[in-house]
Amino acid sequence: MSQLSTRHLLGIKDLTPEDIQLILDTAANFKEVINRPIKKVPSLRDITIANVFFENSTRTRLSFELAEKRLSADVINFSSANSSVKKGETLVDTVNNILSMKVDMVVMRHSSPGAPHFLSRNVKANIVNAGDGTHEHPTQALLDSFSIREKLGDLAGKKVAIIGDILHSRVALSNIFCLQKMGAEVMVCGPITLLPKHIASLGVKVELDVKKALEWCDVANVLRIQLERQQIKYFPSLREYSLYYGINKKLLDQLDKEIVVMHPGPINRGVELSSDVADSDHSIILEQVQNGVAVRMAVLYLLAGVKG
Asked: Which CATH architecture describes the domain 138-288?
């Protein structure tokens, strides 16, 4: 198979295992490209891509922009902070105005779950979801899976613990879907107040004790505490959270095995991860950032081949 089964990347839920495999294999080829002295390829030379971000982003936005430029696409950046959205313009009108400038693809981040899905039904362009509210963040899950595969050789049969603020995390949901489709076992771990009520119905193990989760897993994917999404207090204090759920070197040294530590960034150092873990040999956090460019190149390249 050399083509995706879908013309949009709205969520991992919509992808087949074959789609995911194709994206990861294509990303491996692009990773070789971006490590060459000349890092550009002319693959998307005639394609124009709009990055439409209605929510703040550093890593994802830079990563997509770099991926687009490495593929020789024309890029336009849109930020809602200084746009007509502030004047009351609707989402569809905003995007249609951008598309009337002959844009082929839209990479979009929005605070409302389902916004990219809505857009995909109302505009003529390939839509890539760069994060929709607390729903999904598909390219993050793909780069996480790519990073695990690169480090451990395969995803099938691996045990991955997702630790932290599962309730507010779009990364967690996309990762669960992606890892399960590729044959990995998934556990979620965090304070009970930060676990969605029906999370076990997704076929994941649920653990409240971080030490037990670390003893079980091959990979710990540690999530940020998303204070900006929390309208009420879910735990007494960051200090207390760190005491019970923070991962430090002492905790890792007590394990009878080496585990891989990941984090989608940005890290709250000293809260979910101590610096001596974030900067240790266990950590593949900077590899994830590098792999993000290769994976996003793969997604854009493959979607550009799916017209209709």
From this structure: 3-Layer(aba) Sandwich (3.40)
**Assigned fold of 12-136+292-304:** Rossmann fold (3.40.50)
Catalytic residue among 135, 137, 158, 181: 137
Catalytic choice (36, 86, 87, 233)? 87
Q: Which of 31, 61, 70, 109 is catalytic?
A: 109
Taking only the tens place, the pLDDT of each residue in 13-63 is 999 999 999 999 999 999 999 999 999 999 999 999 999 998 888 889 999
pLDDT tens figures, 226-280: 655 445 566 668 888 888 999 999 999 999 999 999 999 889 899 999 999 999 9
59 is catalytic: yes
Decide: 130 and 53 in contact? Cβ < 8 Å. yes
Specify the pTM: 0.93
Tell me if residue 269 is catalytic: no
